[in-house]
């Protein structure tokens, strides 16, 4: 049996432990017992911080979403040509994904069985739609190649961006920096998606 | 209780049912009971066809791998400039992925707890390495942009290709054809990855 340690958790540090367990076992497969074991404190200590695992999910997903939606309000994302704004949003989305890796990983893996999961999926779709709208505007401006359908281009762009959670492990020897990865995504995607000669 | 139906399964049709259940519940979360219910035949009828669920996994994964590795032996994948071979392999990988969607989906989701799962992961890595070698050769030929690291480029290329399993649903109204998706992936990736002016 694990000795319970004194509860010195802050909301943030408890959340970090919970997100790790959610990502490893899946949210559905995680019980309060699992969280208690991973944190090394009793279930009632956890209940002192939050109402239950669904609140931890909501807090974790909020952290990911706040980071992503904040990008859309940055000056470079709101002014200028759509293609430049799209390119900026792509770069910053990759950076937020890497800075908030476990939180965004959780967001991308959530499948809706509870209200919180359905809300997460809804908000994620909303973010995707905002980016898709930028992409459509850039296409209408003639700044993206006309021979790739805008819906397909959006899916492939997010496919590339979101795949980063599958392999990026910060701090590993030889790991690329956040900037190198963001540069690679932007170069790969945009030298392809921009109409040649117009960038 | 479900009425058991007469066992008219062929190895292929039983496999198709099993793969659907594996993809829905996860391989770990699937019992012989689940397979029996989904197929509508008794467990002993299933055992008449295969030794157990691990054999079904092996058969399903083999089908995905056979399709993928066959691409590497096609004439367009073995002769000519590396960049053209890489582009051909990219297109054909997307096509195989869409033609064998449930089987490749299973391959991409497998995590190694059993011998068969570890073998699947090993063979998948082998495929990825074969493609990565082509990409490195194309970079060495000067046909890919030098400002994206070859390892990162490989990961992003597979990120884009593999993301197709997340959203492609054949036969849906308005769904893109296999050729449209393959074209989009190749255009998006290669107009980006090729050194400008050399394609």
Termini of chain A, distance in Å?
62 Å
Chain pair sharing the greatest interface: A-B, 32 and 32 residues
* Tally of separate helices of chain A: 11
Instruction: Please state roughly what percent of the residues of chain A sit in beta strands, choosing from under 5%, 5-15%, 15-25%, 25-35%, 35-45% or over 45%.
Output: under 5%
Strand tally of chain A is: 0
Structural class of chain A: mainly alpha
Keywords (chains A, B): DNA-binding, Transcription, Transcription regulation
Protein name (chains A, B): TetR/AcrR family transcriptional regulator
Domain HTH tetR-type (chains A, B): 8-68
DNA-binding region (chains A, B): 31-50
Structure, briefly:
2 copies of one chain form a homodimer. The first copy, chain A, has helices spanning 11-25, 32-39, 43-49, 53-73, 75-78, 82-99, 101-109, 115-140, 150-162, 164-167, 178-193.
Strand and helix layout:
The structure is a homodimer of 199-residue chains.
Chain A: H1 11-25, H2 32-39, H3 43-49, H4 53-73, H5 75-78, H6 82-99, H7 101-109, H8 115-140, H9 150-162, H10 164-167, H11 178-193
Helix pairs in contact in A: 1-2, 1-4, 1-7, 4-6, 4-7, 4-8, 6-7, 6-8, 6-11, 8-9
How would you characterize the overall build of this protein?
The structure is a homodimer of 199-residue chains. Chain A is mainly α and 199 residues long. Chain A has eleven helices and no strands. The first copy, chain A, is elongated. The relative contact order of chain A is 0.11. The model of chain A is unreliable at 192-199 (pLDDT under 50). The A-B interface holds A 145, 147-149, 151-153, 155-160, 162-164, 166-167, 176, 180-181, 183-185, 187-193, 196 and B 145, 147-149, 151-153, 155-160, 162-164, 166-167, 176, 180-181, 183-185, 187-193, 196.
């Amino acid at each position: 049996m694990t000795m319970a340690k004194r509860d010195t958790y802050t909301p943030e540090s408890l959340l970090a432990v919970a997100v790790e367990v959610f990502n490893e076992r899946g949210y559905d497969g995680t019980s309060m017992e699992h969280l208690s074991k991973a944190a090394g404190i009793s279930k009632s200590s956890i209940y002192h911080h939050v109402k239950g695992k669904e609140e931890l999910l909501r807090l974790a997903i909020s952290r990911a979403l706040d980071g992503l939606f904040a990008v859309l309000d940055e000056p470079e994302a709101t002014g200028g040509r759509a293609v430049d704004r799209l390119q900026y949003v792509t770069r910053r989305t990759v950076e937020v994904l890497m800075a908030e890796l476990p939180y965004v990983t959780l967001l991308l893996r959530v499948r809706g069985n509870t209200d919180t999961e359905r809300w997460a999926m809804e908000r994620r779709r909303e973010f995707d739609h905002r980016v898709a709208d930028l992409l459509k505007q850039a296409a209408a401006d003639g700044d993206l190649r006309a021979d790739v359908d805008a819906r397909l281009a959006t899916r492939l762009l997010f496919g590339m961006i979101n795949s980063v959670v599958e392999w990026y492990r910060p701090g590993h020897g030889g790991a690329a920096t956040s900037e190198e990865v963001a540069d690679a995504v932007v170069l790969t995607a945009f030298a392809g998606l921009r109409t040649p000669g117009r960038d």
